Task: inverse folding
């Protein structure tokens, strides 16, 4: 019996536990889908299953026997192969297919001293035997499409007698047709008794090809669904409920699917601003998009955010949230349509333009897009507004220091003074610095991309209150995205749900709407058209 | 993975100051030991003080006032040009063309002075413009042409080294030389350039005065000005800089213009010192300048390019070379000395200090990999 099982796997990085007792089993002849939103712990789990990381506790079982993978190579010898999302990682672009197929052998020093083409082609052909793959072996990798490169990786894994195949986001950059071809291939492997796991955020694809779907949230396996013999379709509402954790929050009295333990943590999180104090729309549009496509070639969207309100944008990964707001502030080129600022057409070419128009932006990935390692709180406070902090081209360190102090005291930033490097602050306090500088500078429109990622509960509550004050008391416009509708309900006044670049739901943010949001995300294309028709009508 | 780590920081309370710098940003090796921290902060300066003490005690000629002026004079040209390199390092780039920049400027100014006889002021102007021109070519290649910094400046390094030879017809340009039309060159070095090379104000050599003026100005620009702040922001995290409204392309171009301009100043200083336009005059300077600018990373554990660190780097190099000369170590050992000094400073920064600030180290490695691929 060909199986790979994880039993009660936990993983901690330092004091932080990212996986809490996850169990799952991959069986030969089955395709398992692993789904979960950003930060659910999918990649950590894959790393453990493939030997790239060691679990802090729990065990791996291979064919019913306990097993330990010293490193990915060891796991590979024991029949586990991983095809990573980043295909380029495993291939040498200006080498031939044959050379790439034999790359592992080079690492194992099994290449002959004098390389002959005949040896390469013979060995590559041997490797491919029985895998069902055929290639023009002399072709260079960089002449292949993404799908072609992926096939080479698959073939290489199979040629090395992989029995368990783990694919991380295999469809991320494939066309619909290429996805079909890949799925056919996976079904074929399934029939050969290979255990396949795909990690994906495209739920409809998981539903199409998988026999079993495992849902991961906040480092826990929260649900496990199987379609009996592939005849039964999955209950997508249940999958999305599991991913977003709506059930244990808003709909706590209904069935809870094996996600005990998070409820208590969540209830502390909700001690923030009370839900239900939804601002009445002023009708005074601060920022508006007309006929802008969130995703290239996607449907045109019309959306506006008023002064005095917080608009929340949600949807799964790939729904186009980030793409839409980045076009609105001008850090991503506008594909089509118009952006209106205070009712006037406006085309920001850079963040410089946006700032001069009173538009602030907090990007999603704090470390990569917002922080300067080693810089102090005061430096971070002033950098987007350097002009107003300088005279005769020189930075006035006094006023910079003053503003840094003001930021720390007014917005409750803990863990350091103005001179403390931000990387010594906790994630929550880092985020407070990055967000509150826009509040302190009083921009008119603030756009935030996933502002609560990597932010602890206390800081999240604080940030939510600050944002609500900014919009409701100081009468500014705020637009924020989050893939967690619960977070949005807690903070925003109005919610818009995106799915594959289209608006599928829009409404006031009250506790009762979570169910509707899940239904909108789970709903099929007909739902999209129905709403489209309603909006036109 | 980093997002997950960050996400699960949710489990920690916000008041808690992290034991180690946030794992998303800093090295994961954890804390440095006290010895590592000390050697990172004071290692370079301590070694410098020890070297000076040893030279002073063992070589009687080392500790004299006149030798101090010799050291300061010999470091001045290197320091000024290295400040240019510091600009390119600040934006996370490189300027390898600095040596041939100096050589090219020497030739251009020499021709203006000696062949055209246009006088000292125009000689200086032509030199500065020549330097700026090289900076502009670099900026154009790197910012508009999107050629990686190191390769682009490697290209201009060869191009301008060659061009200096071409405009000089392959020969030194010296006063009284015979021109191609058979006549004697009309011009001479003139008072201005003689003063730059040999003049003194209250016993202070002209070269040293220029060094002080330039370093103070560049210190203000890098440490105190809006421009400097923006340049460092770009070098640390260019994406974050862009999202903070900094026009990254424009400022990177400005950094290379500064580099070219300072190369021009250094070239003029060198011409004044040499008294004629020597072929390949700039050649030894690349190594010295890069060494000085990179030694700055280890200056008081700053881990970044800086004006004061760079001037110190140039001083360090000059003192070591001067001291070794006192012991009759032959001149041809100099290059090895520069190389060893540079390696020593880099070990302090990277090995002991666990790297420069994360992004900068990555950008340096990236550049090296790019160069490796291109060769």
Result:
């Amino acid at each position: 019996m060909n199986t790979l099982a994880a039993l009660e796997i936990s993983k901690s990085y330092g004091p932080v536990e990212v996986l809490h007792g996850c169990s799952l089993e991959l069986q030969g002849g089955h395709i398992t889908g692993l789904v979960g939103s950003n930060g659910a712990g999918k990649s950590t789990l894959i790393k453990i299953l493939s030997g790239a990381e060691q679990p802090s506790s729990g065990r791996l079982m291979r064919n019913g026997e306990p097993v330990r993978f010293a490193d990915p190579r060891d796991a590979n010898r024991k029949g586990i192969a991983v095809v990573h999302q980043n295909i380029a990682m495993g291939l040498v672009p200006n080498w031939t297919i044959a050379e790439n197929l034999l790359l592992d052998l080079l690492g194992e020093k099994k290449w002959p001293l004098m390389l002959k083409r005949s040896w390469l082609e013979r060995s590559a052909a041997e490797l491919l035997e029985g895998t069902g793959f055929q290639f023009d072996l002399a072709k260079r990798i960089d002449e292949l499409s993404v799908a072609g490169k992926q096939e080479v990786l698959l073939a290489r894994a199979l040629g090395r007698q992989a029995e368990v195949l783990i694919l991380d986001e295999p469809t991320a950059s494939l066309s619909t047709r290429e996805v079909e071809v890949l799925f056919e291939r996976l079904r074929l492997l399934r029939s050969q008794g290979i255990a396949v796991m795909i990690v994906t955020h495209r739920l409809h694809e998981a539903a199409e090809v998988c026999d079993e779907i495992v849902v991961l949230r906040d480092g826990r396996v929260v649900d496990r669904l199987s379609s009996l013999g592939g005849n039964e379709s999955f209950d997508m509402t249940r999958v999305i409920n599991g991913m977003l954790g709506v059930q244990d929050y808003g709909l706590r009295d209904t069935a809870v699917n094996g996600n005990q333990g998070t409820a208590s943590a969540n209830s502390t999180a909700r001690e923030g601003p009370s839900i239900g104090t939804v601002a009445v729309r002023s009708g005074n549009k601060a920022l508006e998009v007309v006929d802008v496509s969130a995703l290239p070639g996607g449907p045109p969207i019309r959306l506006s955010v008023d002064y005095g309100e917080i608009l929340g944008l949600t949807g799964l990964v790939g729904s186009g949230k980030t793409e839409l707001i980045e076009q609105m502030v001008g850090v991503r080129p506008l594909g089509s349509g118009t952006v209106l600022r205070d009712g006037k057409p406006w085309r920001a070419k850079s963040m410089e333009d946006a700032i001069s128009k009173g538009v602030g932006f907090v990007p999603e990935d704090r470390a990569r897009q917002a922080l300067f390692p080693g810089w102090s709180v005061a430096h971070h406070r002033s950098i987007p507004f350097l002009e107003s902090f300088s005279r005769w081209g020189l930075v006035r360190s006094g006023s910079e220091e003053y503003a840094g102090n003001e930021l720390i005291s007014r917005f409750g930033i803990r863990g350091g003074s103005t001179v403390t490097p931000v990387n010594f602050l906790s994630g929550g306090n880092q985020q407070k610095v990055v967000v509150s500088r826009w509040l302190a500078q009083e921009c008119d429109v603030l756009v935030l991309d996933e502002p609560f990622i990597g932010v602890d509960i206390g800081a999240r509550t604080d940030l939510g209150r600050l944002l609500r004050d900014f919009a409701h008391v100081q009468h500014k416009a705020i637009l924020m995205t989050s893939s967690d509708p619960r977070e949005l309900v807690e903070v925003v006044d109005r919610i818009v749900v995106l799915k594959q670049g289209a608006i599928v739901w829009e409404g006031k943010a009250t506790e009762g709407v979570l169910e509707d949001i899940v239904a909108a995300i789970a709903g099929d294309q007909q739902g999209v058209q129905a709403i489209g028709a309603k909006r036109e009508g | 993975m980093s997002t997950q780590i960050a996400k699960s920081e949710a489990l920690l309370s916000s008041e808690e100051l992290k034991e180690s710098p946030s794992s998303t940003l800093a090295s994961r090796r954890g804390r440095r030991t006290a010895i590592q921290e000390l050697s990172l902060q004071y290692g370079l300066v301590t070694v410098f003080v020890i070297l000076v003490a040893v030279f002073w005690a063992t070589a009687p000629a080392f500790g004299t006032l006149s030798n101090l002026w010799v050291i300061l004079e010999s470091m001045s040209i290197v320091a000024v040009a290295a400040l240019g390199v510091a600009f390119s390092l600040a934006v996370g780039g490189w300027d390898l063309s600095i040596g041939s920049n100096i050589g090219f400027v020497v030739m251009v100014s020499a021709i203006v002075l000696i062949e055209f006889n246009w006088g000292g002021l125009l000689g200086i102007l032509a030199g500065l413009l020549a330097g700026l021109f090289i900076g502009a070519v670099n900026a154009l290649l790197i910012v508009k042409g999107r050629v990686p910094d190191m390769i682009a400046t490697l290209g201009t390094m060869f191009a301008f080294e060659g061009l200096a030879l071409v405009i000089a017809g392959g020969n030194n340009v010296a006063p009284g030389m015979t021109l191609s039309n058979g006549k004697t060159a009309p011009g001479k070095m003139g008072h201005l350039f003689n003063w730059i090379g040999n003049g003194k104000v209250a016993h202070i050599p002209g070269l040293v005065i220029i060094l002080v003026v330039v370093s103070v100005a560049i210190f203000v620009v890098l440490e105190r000005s809006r421009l400097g702040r923006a340049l460092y922001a770009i070098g640390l995290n260019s994406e974050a800089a862009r999202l903070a409204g900094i026009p990254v392309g424009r400022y990177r171009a400005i950094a290379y213009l500064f580099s070219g301009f300072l190369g021009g100043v250094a070239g003029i200083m060198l011409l004044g010192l040499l008294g004629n336009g020597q072929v390949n005059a700039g050649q030894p300077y690349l190594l010295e300048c890069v060494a000085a600018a990179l030694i700055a990373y280890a200056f008081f554990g700053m881990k970044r390019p800086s004006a004061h660190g760079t001037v110190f780097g140039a001083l360090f190099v000059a003192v070591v070379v001067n001291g070794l000369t006192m012991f009759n170590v032959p001149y041809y050992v100099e290059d090895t000395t520069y190389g060893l000094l540079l390696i020593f400073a880099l070990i302090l920064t990277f090995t002991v200090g666990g790297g420069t600030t994360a992004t900068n180290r990555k950008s340096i490695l990236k550049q090296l990999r790019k160069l490796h691929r291109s060769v």
About this structure: Chain B touches chain A through 51 residues (CB under 8 Å). Residues 43 and 348 of chain B are 7 Å apart (CA to CA). The first strand of chain B starts at residue 200 and ends at 201.
